[in-house]
Structures are given as C-alpha cells and as structure tokens.
Write a structure and sequence with these properties.
Layout lengths: L4 H4 L28 E6 L5 E6 L1 E3 L8 E2 L1 E5 L6 E9 L4 E8 L5 E9 L4 E5 L1 H4 L8 E8 L9 E9 L5 E4 L2 E3 L19
Parallel strand pairs: 3-4
Antiparallel strand pairs: 1-2, 3-11, 5-10, 5-13, 6-9, 6-11, 7-8, 7-10, 11-12
C-alpha cells in the first residue's frame, strides 16, 4: 500500500498519465475496473490543484461514467488559453466535438479518431480554428470504434491557463441533455440510465 504511488515510483514532477491495471484472471480476461481520473496541476510556486474527472462513455460500462454529451461553456472574458485534454481508455474511440452558439446554432464540428490508451492535450483553437466565442457551448460525443463497448471510453477535460499569472484551472465536463425526447441509453442492467 502506498500513500503516493507516483512518489514511490520516483516520478514526482513528471508530466503524463498513470494507469493502475488489475491482475488478469487465469482465463486471460479481467473485469473492467472502476475508472476515475484525478488530474493534478502543479503551480510554479509549488501549490497543487486537483480535480476528479469522470469517464465519458456511450454505455454504462463504467461506474461513475458520464453518459450522453459532456458540455463545456466558454465563459467571458477571453483572457485564458484553453486546451482540450483527451485520454482514451482500453479501446479505440471516435470523438466528435460540436461548437454551439448561445442560440444553439452549430458553428463548427470536428471528429477525431483516438487509439487505445492515448493521451493528448491540444489548444482549443486546433479543434475549431479559433471560431469559439464567449458564451458558446462545446459538446463532446464519445463512440467506440471497436466491437468492445464495455471498455471503450475517454476522459475529456479542459485546462484553462490565465494569460497574466499562468495559473492553470482544470475544468470538468457537465452532462447536458441534447435531445428533445428522452433516450434510453441501455435497456436493462446495473447502472442503466435514462437521459
């Protein structure tokens, strides 16, 4: 048992992601673990800020998963640099981002493919060619591209860097109902939800 596994591995101060994978059963398979992402941002002065980010998935395969389309709001004033963080899980996924104006008109749409176990952090401008405006919303749809829907998902977050202080804030997505009629995400079973 470790109080801090990163320190125990002598990786303190290293930027990246760390997975803890359960032992494989004798049959060669393992049950999907519960997944939660804890993001830690270390400031120049040594202070830390952390946030728990849910897994985004099109099924209820992960306890605590965010079902449906996670939403991010672009808030004024625009004095921040915004990056989009994507961390795919055990299977490849396709992620579609939809940029909506305050009246819910679509300004732009981008679709990207991600291999399994991939981490990427890119400027928001690279997704929409800097078309985003304060008050806009961004929806992310995560879909599996392989046959295994139970281990397909992604962790999606924003990091906002203040242009003056260079302080970083981690922004967690919120769930948004995007359909006018309720949609049954899964028919039956533990963790099923109706949006």
């Amino acid at each position: 048992m470790y109080d801090d596994i990163v320190v125990a591995m002598h990786l303190d101060g290293v930027i990246g992601s760390l997975d803890i994978v359960p032992d494989v059963y004798e049959s060669g398979a393992y049950a999907p673990p519960q997944v939660r992402a804890d993001l830690i941002s270390v400031g120049a002065s040594g202070g830390e800020f952390s946030a728990s980010i849910p897994v985004v998935t099109s099924t209820s395969g992960y306890p605590g998963a965010l079902l449906g389309a996670p939403r991010f709001l672009i808030e004024p004033p625009r004095n921040k640099r915004i990056s989009v963080g994507i961390r795919s899980l055990a299977d490849p996924v396709e992620i579609t981002a939809l940029l909506l104006s305050p009246d819910r008109a679509a300004r732009a749409q981008t679709t990207r493919q991600y291999a399994a176990d991939l981490y990427e952090q890119t400027p928001l401008a690279s997704w929409f060619n800097d078309l985003q405006q304060p008050g806009d919303s961004i929806l992310f749809f995560v879909r599996p591209t392989s046959g295994s829907i139970w281990t397909a998902g992604a962790i999606v977050f924003f990091s906002e860097t203040d242009n003056t202080t260079n302080d970083v804030t981690i922004v967690s997505p919120t769930e948004l109902q995007t359909l006018s009629q309720p949609a049954i995400v899964c028919a039956s079973g533990w963790g099923c939800s109706v949006l």
